[in-house]
Every structure is written in structure tokens, then in C-alpha cells.
Amino acid sequence: MKGGSQEALIKSKRAFSVLAFFAFFVLPLLYGAGFLSIGDVNMLGRYMTFAILALGLDLLWGYVGILSLCQFTFFCLGAYAMGMHLAHHGGPEGIIDAEGWKIPACLFVVYPYEVGEASGDALVPGFWKPFWNLPLTVLLGLAIPGLVSFALGYLVFRSRVRGVYFAILTQAIAVASWLVFCRNDVKLCGTNGLTRFDVIAPKESITTFNPVDAKDQWLASHGNSMEYDLNKDGKLDQLDYSVAEVGFSLSSAEVQLALYFITAICLFGAYLLCRWIVNSRLGKILLAIRDDEPTLHFFGYKPHVFKIFAFCIAAVLAGLAGMLFVPQMKIVTPSNMEAYRSLLVVVWVAVGGRGTLTGAVLGALVVNLLYNYLTSEHDYGLFAWSPDYWPILLGLLFLGVVLLLPKGLVQLGQRFSSDKVSGSDAPEEGAKT
Fold first, then answer.
1. Full-model pTM
2. Which of 6, 133, 145, 280 falls 20 to 30 Å from 372 in CA-CA distance?
3. How many angstroms from the chain centroid is the CA of residue 239?
4. Alpha carbons 373 and 100: distance in angstroms, whole number
5. Domain residues of the chain, as ranges?
6. How many CA atoms are closer than 13 Å to the CA of 254, on its beta-carbon side?
């Protein structure tokens, strides 16, 4: 048994090394040589965020036996956090409110004024303001999914809700969240979503916590040289308000390449974290919950505590993936939160290999790359392929893996390596006998 676990660990490390080699060396070289465009690199970066999301579900479903169908809800909580930050610093439209805050362009379009209010009476919603600062945004993008999952897990797992009932409950939460985010009066731009992202990491968003302080610091550092541009209320005019904003343009190829590398680093960091968890004593307890929870409870453990922990880790990873996704996609809408998207994460994990971690990464990348290829325009000769066939093909792929490769695509690699090892060892074993 110990030898089998060591062999599995060696195979996992080998697969990790191969993926890292391709991510950090092969793909950048292909881009530098002109075989890949910056759009292709950007696409791979987005798919890596999906791989981070799949890792969290694999930890939860593959090692604890909990099937969560609301992972894209946590993904969007992180995505909206980063989207609100980018919206603060993007787009020239909007107005300066009475408190000196610029109303984000995407929010200004759908701002729900009260009866009798004019556009000049609008204020930036209070819950938007913390997201002006980049470090605080990153912290909140991780903390909000973690706190929501903790509250949900505490209420559900303490009540010993599990199995299919938990899956149905989480899908209901996904649907309810989607309905809430679609409403304009929630002040998250409704079905339009968050858009108009221009720059990331402006200097003022790191050193100050609100645009008023940034304006005052800019004026003080320049000897109030812009006082003649202040309006009669003592505030900067709309066009002058963003003069101090200096950041990295999201449309720049260098920034998109940097975001790809940041996403790759986060992906492999998330993989190492999950690998450390499953190989530790904690991981053995998680497996015991999956295999025989009543017996574990009989021996004095509290399974709900470990379930909450795994659920929170999966949610935090989903929030991290969402924050990385938005700067590369440049938009986030409630459609990213629809219930069927969380079902897609289940398909990715199952196709790649449930309970393997490497399989979760492989499944997310393979399925999404296949989706991108088969829904793009290609000349297939006599065979007329339509993107409308993709759901059918995805269903067939899922059924084929379940029936023929229960351990997912990683099973093919394991079969190949096992045949190779057995073939090379056969003569040696014969000599020993």
C-alpha cells in the first residue's frame, strides 16, 4: 500500500513538472517565435483560471466526497471584487459625486436614482468604496468567498446535510445568486455587468484608500498647480480628475503576458497547496470522511469541521480564479454565475480524473481548448460542423469517460507509464526468478 502511494506521488510530481515546463517555457517560447499570438496567450491564461477553480472542486469532491454545484458563484464573488476595482479606475464617463468620488462608468449607466433625484444627487454606493484600493480588493476577493462558504458550510454541515441533498442545495444557491446579481437595484450594474476596464494597478490605488486622498496628494505634490482647474465647488473637473491615474493598460501585450505568468504561478501554487493538504494527516481524515464518515464520527472526530475547512479552501481558490479571470476577460456579468456553469466544473474534473488534482487541471484545459477549437470557424471539408453540436459532444465525452475511463484522462497516462515500466522490468524479474 505504501509502495502504491509512493508510486502515485512520483507520477503526480512527474505530471506537475511536465505541466510547469509547458506553462513557463514552451508556451512563452512559442509566443516569442510568433507561433502563438497574444490573444492565444490571453486565452490560455483564462483557461488556467478555470483550472484553479477545478482544483478546488477536486479537493472537495474527489477527496472529501462533497459535490458542490455553486463553485462559479464563489468564482464570481472574486470576479466582481476585482471588477469593481477595475471599474473605479476605468472609463471617462460618469460624474464626480458630492463626496469627491467618481461614479464608475458602468455603474453610472444603470444607477437607480430615487424618486425626485437628479443625476447630480447620485453617490457612489458605500460598499463599492473599499474596492478602490488594490491590496484591499485582493484581500476582500479572497475573504468574501471564504466567509460566505464558512457561513453556508457551518449551517449545512452541522445539520448533517450531505450527498445529493447538499448538491441540490448548492445549485439552488447558484440560481438565487444569479437572480440577485441580475437586479439593477443591487447596484452591481444588473445584467450589463461590470465593464470599461482600462488599467490595472494604478499607483494611487496602492498607496491610498480613496480617490479624494489621491487627489489631495497629487495637488500637494505639485504645489496646488492645478487650482485653476478646480470647479466652483473646489473639486477637480471630470476630465482632470483622472490626471494622476497612471497604471498598466489592460490592452497592452506586455500586461497580458504578465497576467498569464501571474495566473500560471497562482495555478501551480494552488496545486502545491492542495497536494500538501491531501498528503498530510489532514488529507487522510478527508479521505476517511469520503469513505466512511459514520465510523470517523464514532472515533470522536467532528467531520463537519473538516468539511467546512475543505469547502472554504475550494471557495477561496474559486475567488482567486475569478480575480485573475476578470483582467484577462475585461468583463464580468451575471451570466458567469448561471447554474449550468458550475455543472461544467464537475464535467472538467470528471473528464480529467476525479481525486487526482493533476486530472482537474488537465480536464479544465483540455475541455476548454476543445470547446474553443470546435466552436471557432474551421473548414472540415465534407463534414459540416456547427458550434450548436458542442453540448452534444460534451455530453458524449462525459459519458465516454465515465464508462470507459472511470479515472479520467489521467488513466491513459497511467496505463502508458505502467505498460512501459512493466515492459522494462519484465526481463529483470525473470532473471530473479
1. 0.88
2. 145
3. 34
4. 47
5. 2-201+247-424
6. 5
